[in-house]
Design goal:
37% helix; globular; 13 strands; alpha/beta; seven-stranded mixed β-sheet; four-stranded antiparallel β-sheet
C-alpha cells in the first residue's frame, strides 16, 4: 500500500498523459464528480455536435438526412465504427440504435431459441432489474416459466460473483446466458473470455451487458467468440442522458432474421424503396428497428472523438491507477472507520468504479453531496465512487477521501447537524 500525500498525487497529475482531456469537459468549479458510471459529463465536442445538427435542421430541414459529410443517415455507421475498436469487434458486428433494454429485447427475440429441455436462461443475482424484466417477458412469450426456467446464480459471499459457480450452473438445459461485463453494484470485472469459452463448449448462446465497461474497459468480443453484447451510451461514452444504446452481434449470426423487425433494419440500398417485403441487412444493422434518434446520437459523435484520441488502452491504464490510488487512500484513512472495500483489488477483476460498504452509506452519500462531491449510493450499504479517466484528476481522488473521512468523523461524533 502506498501512503499518498497531496503532493504525491499532484505529481501523478503532472505526468498524466490524459490530463489535457479534462479541459474538454464542462466541470463545475469546486465540484468533485465521481458518478460517471451513471452519467458521463458533457464535453465541448459533444455540445458542438448537437449544435451542428440543430443548425442543419434549421437551415436545410429534411435534406439533412442526405447532405454533407455528417448526413444524418450515416450517423449510426460513424458512431458504430468508433465503438468497434473499444470492444474488439468488426464494425459490421456493431450497430448504434435503440436503448439498452430494447437492444436486449431484440437480441433475445433474435437469438433465443428454446428447444426441448434446452430452454433455460442463466443470469446472476446482481443482474440489473431492467435486464431481468426483459428476460422474464421472453420466457412468458414462449409459454415458459419466468421463475422455473430462469437460473439465477448467487454471489458466493453476498457481494462478488464466482466464475467457477457460474460455469457449474451452465447445465445441459441452459440455452442462453446474459451476464454483466462489470457488476454495477460492486465494480467486479468478470473473466468474460473464460465464461464465453465454457458456454460455447456447452452450446449456450452467451452475451454481456457492457453498460459499465464500454468506453472504460477494453474487450475482445470477436476474438473471444461472444455471441452478443449490448450497452448504453450515457456512462463512460459520455453521450448524455438518454443517449442511444448499442449492440454487438457476432458475425456467425449474420443472416439470422431479426426477432423484432423494423424498417431501419432493411438493407440500406433498399431502405427508401419502402418495400412491402422485409429485406434485412446482412450484418448487425438488421437489428436496427426504427428511424435513428439523431439528436440523441449527435453527442456520441463528439464524445467518441475524445475517446478515440485518448485510446482505450490508455483510458484503461489510467482508470486502474485512479482506482488503485482510491483503494490505497481508503486503506490508510478509512479502514478503521467502518469502511470496507467491496470491489476486488486485483486489476484483472476490477472495472471502472470502486464500491465501499458502510452501515450509513446512504447518509455518507448525502453528506458528500452537501460537500460538493457527486457520488452514488446503492442499497443496502454501498457507496460507489467512479473516477473518469478523461476528466478526474488524481488530486480529486485524494480530496474525495479527505471529505469522506471528515464526514465519517462527524458521524462518529454525532455532530452532522451542527455544521
Amino acid at each position: 500500500m502506498t501512503e499518498w500525500t497531496r503532493e504525491a498525487v499532484r505529481a501523478l497529475d503532472v505526468k498524466d498523459a490524459l490530463a489535457p482531456m479534462r479541459k474538454l469537459f464542462h466541470l463545475r468549479p469546486g465540484v468533485l464528480y465521481f458518478n460517471g458510471n451513471s452519467l458521463g459529463l458533457l464535453s465541448q465536442p459533444a455540445e458542438r455536435a448537437v449544435r451542428e445538427v440543430l443548425e442543419v435542421w434549421q437551415s436545410i430541414a429534411v435534406d439533412g438526412w442526405f447532405t454533407g459529410p455528417r448526413a444524418w443517415l450515416g450517423m449510426m455507421d460513424k458512431i458504430s465504427s468508433q465503438i468497434a475498436p473499444l470492444i474488439g469487434a468488426d464494425p459490421r458486428e456493431v450497430t448504434t440504435a435503440n436503448s439498452t433494454t430494447v437492444n436486449l429485447h431484440q437480441l433475445l427475440a433474435t437469438l433465443y431459441h428454446p428447444t426441448g429441455t434446452k430452454k433455460k436462461i442463466l443470469v446472476d443475482e446482481t443482474i440489473f432489474c431492467s435486464d431481468v424484466y426483459a428476460i422474464r417477458s421472453h420466457l412468458q412469450l414462449r409459454g415458459l416459466d419466468p421463475v422455473g426456467d430462469l437460473i439465477i446464480v448467487p454471489t458466493v459471499d453476498g457481494a462478488l460473483l464466482s466464475e467457477d459457480t457460474l460455469i457449474e450452473r451452465m447445465s445441459g438445459d441452459v440455452a442462453y446466458a446474459v451476464l454483466p461485463s462489470v457488476v454495477y453494484h460492486t465494480g467486479q470485472l468478470l473473466d468474460m473470455q473464460r465464461l464465453i469459452e465454457e458456454a460455447r463448449r456447452r452450446e449456450i448462446i452467451i452475451g454481456f451487458d457492457c453498460s459499465h465497461s464500454v468506453g472504460c474497459v477494453p474487450h475482445e468480443l470477436s476474438h473471444w467468440g461472444a455471441d452478443f453484447a449490448f450497452w448504453g451510451g450515457y456512462k463512460y461514452l459520455n453521450g448524455g442522458p438518454g443517449a442511444v444504446g448499442g449492440l454487438y452481434l457476432n458475425q456467425r449470426h449474420f443472416g439470422c432474421a431479426p426477432g423484432l423487425a423494423g424498417w431501419f433494419g432493411c438493407a440500406k440500398d433498399r431502405l427508401l424503396e419502402m418495400a412491402f417485403e422485409f429485406d434485412p441487412a446482412g450484418d448487425a444493422e438488421a437489428l436496427q428497428i426504427s428511424t435513428p434518434f439523431v439528436l440523441s446520437m449527435a453527442p456520441l459523435l463528439g464524445s467518441l472523438s475524445i475517446i478515440s484520441e485518448a485510446g482505450i488502452q490508455a483510458i484503461r491504464a489510467k482508470s486502474l491507477q485512479l482506482n488503485s490510488v482510491l483503494i490505497d487512500l481508503v486503506d490508510s484513512r478509512l479502514q478503521h472507520q467502518g469502511v470496507s472495500l467491496v470491489t476486488p483489488r486485483e486489476d484483472r477483476r476490477r472495472g471502472g468504479h470502486v464500491a465501499l460498504a458502510h452501515p450509513m452509506a446512504e447518509t455518507l452519500c448525502r453528506e458528500l453531496h452537501e460537500r460538493q462531491v457527486i457520488a452514488d449510493y446503492r442499497k443496502p450499504d454501498l457507496l460507489r465512487l467512479c473516477p473518469s479517466p478523461l476528466y478526474t484528476s488524481f488530486e480529486d481522488c485524494f480530496e474525495v477521501i479527505e471529505r469522506l473521512a471528515s464526514i465519517i468523523e462527524s458521524v462518529g461524533r454525532g455532530s452532522l447537524g451542527n455544521r
